[in-house]
Request: fold
Amino acid sequence: MPHAIPGLAFDVSRRHAELSADIQAAAQVGRAPGRIDGYAVQSHPAILRRLARMISEALPKRLDRLVTPEPTGVALTTAVALETGLPTTVIHGDAELGGTIDRGERVAVVVQVIASGDEAVRVADVVGAHGATVAGVFAAVDLDQGARDRLALAGHTLATVVTISGSDAHQDRGLNR
Reply:
C-alpha cells in the first residue's frame, strides 16, 4: 500500500496559480497591466511545457488534429502535439495551409494569446471550409477582451489556462470553459 507523503500533493489550483505567476513574470516585464508579450510566454521551456500539458489535459478525447495561426501559435501547438501525438496544421495568412485538414476531422484550434477572438474565428472558418469540425478553441492566455462571447456567437467554445484582464493582471481562473 502506497504511503502518503505530506507536501507532495500538487493540486490543480496550485498548478494554475504557479503557472499564472510565471506567465506574469515572463510576459509582462515592462508592459502595462493586461498587456503581455506572447512570444515571451513561449520562450521559456518550463512555462511552455506546463501550458502544453494543461491544454492537452483539456482537449476532447476524440480529436484528429491541432490547428493554429502562424506565426504566433506554432511553438505552443508543437508542444501540445508532442504531448498528445496529434498532427498539426498551420494557417498561413488568410487561408493557406501548412499541412492538411481532412474532411470529417475533429480539430482543436490552439492559440497562445486571445483577445477579441477574431483570429480564432478566422482559423475556425478555414477549418470549416475544409469540411472539418472545430471541437473547441484552446488558449494559453485570455486577455478578457470579448473572445469568449465572439467565439460563442460563431458557435465555438473557448478553454483558457490563464486569464489576464486589465488592472486585474494577476488573476488566474484555471482552465476555464
Q: What stands out?
A: The beta strands are 65-69, 88-92, 96-98, 106-114, 133-142, 158-163. The helical segments are 12-27, 38-42, 45-58, 74-84, 118-129, 147-153. Residues 49 and 79 are 7 Å apart (CA to CA). The radius of gyration is 16 Å.
